[in-house]
Design brief:
Largest sheet: 6 strands, parallel
Helix content: 40-55%
CATH architecture of the largest domain: Up-down Bundle
Strand content: 5-15%
CATH class of the largest domain: Mainly Alpha
Number of domains: 2
Number of helices: 15
Distance between the termini: 38 Å
Bound molecules: fe (ii) ion
Structural class: alpha/beta
Strand order of the largest sheet: 1-9-6-4-2-3
CATH superfamily of the largest domain: Dehydroquinate synthase-like - alpha domain
């Protein structure tokens, strides 16, 4: 089965059409969910103008924090109830979009985030969300996954359901041109990791493979250019195209060891998701390549390296260096003493099961050590 629950609009300027999807769903009151950085960058004001022109009443909730937790989602949901919102516009990165997706789930279903953790636990379709990403990106605007922190358990909770998605995604590369180089690098690497893990997943099939390869091809040339010059709109557009293709692919395959390991790194050590996946990727590829040498050779060739699995691994090490990703995670917060706890949590991830090479807990511990 190939699922795409979200209606996707792509192109320069499409963010400004946000009133159309809201009209389609008969929105009477909208909560705009965003963060202060995005507000300060001036990305929300032009959207507000379009809402006013369309006479769609709205309120702004700009208190989204990075790594939103169960309590933060609850706060956004309560704000939505307070102002009588029946729909959401999310403007920002994965944190704002996931907050809005889950607040919309609560608006339609009641309860708390904890009620919906796992696969297909959301009974009713979430309230309408129009997601407008300002990074390229996590793909949160398209995927059926949301990641919400549970600080009490040092966990990142994953909610996977076609009912917990944004109904509309407006993929506008012009909103990403102001993103600083390091954020461009780590969010872009998340996309490349999604594509590579989907392509090499045990669940991959022809339809997901073509999408994943296109994402790898675009991200490989466009990411270094977007990091070097944020205003390079062709590179920004290619990165956003890569996000769409990679998200469609991995929503239908799941991921692999990199993502199984990255969530505990966020939960226990607060390493940013993009930094974690980027630094882990070459180590996991090196571990996996014996199980799927042809797959990784194709990955290498698609990135413009030699058609060889080892060349693919080396290419990623070099790419990370070029775009300023730290080679080691110790200096950015990973603690060696927590490796056993993180490995235990990583082994519970469904992504381990679809990783191309069968993986046991000592393998995961060794991979964490390699990236330390
Ligand atoms: Fe990711």
């Amino acid at each position: 089965m190939f699922r795409i629950p979200t209606r996707i609009q792509f192109g320069r300027g499409v963010a400004l059409t946000l009133a159309e999807p809201l009209r389609q769903v008969g929105a009477k009151k909208v909560l705009v969910v965003t963060d202060l950085g995005v507000m300060k960058a001036g990305l929300v004001a032009p959207l507000e103008e379009k809402l006013r022109e369309a006479k769609i009443p709205y309120e702004i909730y700009d208190q989204v924090m990075p790594d939103p937790g169960v309590a933060e989602v609850q706060r956004a949901y309560e704000r939505a109830k307070e102002v009588g919102a029946d729909s959401f516009v999310a403007v920002g990165g994965g944190s704002s979009i996931d907050t809005a997706k889950m607040a919309a789930v609560l608006l339609a279903n009641g309860g708390t985030v904890l009620d919906y953790v796992g696969i297909d636990k959301v009974p009713k379709m979430a309230a309408p969300v129009v997601a407008i990403p300002t990074t390229a990106g996590t793909g949160a605007e398209i995927t059926i996954n949301s990641v919400i922190a549970d600080p009490d358990q040092h966990k990142k909770l994953v909610i996977i359901s076609p009912n917990a998605t944004a109904l509309f995604a407006l993929e506008d590369p012009e909103l990403t041109t102001g993103l600083p180089p390091f954020l461009t690098a780590i969010t872009g690497m998340d996309t490349l990791v999604h594509a590579i893990e989907s392509f090499t997943s045990k669940n991959a099939y022809r339809m997901t493979e073509v999408l994943a390869l296109e994402a790898i091809r675009d991200a490989a040339w466009a990411l270094p250019r977007a990091v070097k010059d944020g205003t390079d709109i062709d590179a920004r557009e290619a990165m956003m195209r890569a996000v769409v293709a990679a998200s469609l692919a991995f929503s239908n395959t799941r991921l692999g060891n990199v993502h199984a390991m990255a969530l505990p790194l966020g939960g226990w050590c607060h390493v940013a998701h993009g930094t974690a996946v980027a630094a882990l990727l070459p180590h996991v590829m090196d571990f996996n390549r014996s199980a799927a040498p042809d797959r990784y050779a194709t990955v290498g060739e698609t990135m413009g390296a030699k058609k060889d699995a080892t060349a693919a691994v080396e290419h990623i090490f070099r790419l990370n260096e070029t775009i300023g990703i730290p080679a080691h995670l110790g200096p950015v917060g990973m603690e060696e003493a927590l490796i056993p706890n993180m490995a235990t949590d990583a082994m519970l991830s469904g992504n381990i099961l679809v990783n191309p090479r069968t993986t046991a807990q000592p393998d995961i511990e060794a991979l964490y050590k390699a990236a330390l």
